[in-house]
Amino acid sequence: MKRMIRRSYYLGEYLLMQLISRDRPGPFLRWFLRLPLLYYRLYRLGLGSLLGNQILVLTTIGRKTGLERKTPLGYAYDPESDTYCVTAGWRARTDWYRNLQHTPWFHAQVGRRSVRDLAQPVAAETYAHVFRKIIEQNPLAARYWPRWTGEPYEGSEATILEIADLFPMLTLRPQR
What we know:
The protein is of the alpha+beta class. The chain has one domain: Pnp Oxidase, Chain A (Roll), CATH 2.30.110.10. It is built from 7 helices and 8 strands, in the order H-H-H-E-E-E-E-H-E-E-E-H-H-H-E. A 4-stranded antiparallel beta sheet has the order 2-1-5-6, sandwiched between helices. Strands 3-4-8-7 form a 4-stranded antiparallel beta sheet, covered by helices on one side. The chain is globular. About 25% of the residues are buried.
């Protein structure tokens, strides 16, 4: 069941990426991209595991308003280091990423788990490792990266480093 949910999530993500502008989402798409906040409600009810845990809800502090901002994000998880990795879209112009640059403290809800700490940028070698894991889990991701970068994705280190420059990744680790 979870495998089917994960695959349907990846397919939906792929189809959505074909429709999204490379520059910035329009008002309808911004509303649509926030629909996964419904997951947060399900998490609060203890039903988050039914969704396959593909989305975490990141809470940041708004850089202009100082208010809490919730954003649903896809993520990669490394159980060995107990680290969640999230990638900023639109060439690092996403609000949540800019909020974390201003105030790096975050709260993330992943299923029933709550994570708080400082967000850290990912080093280039770690980026390549995580990116390859993402592609391995979701082969469709390799098909939409060329649309965002303007270059074909052939899996080389140079291509991954170009993607890292355009779409920075942050690690979210639980407090120790």
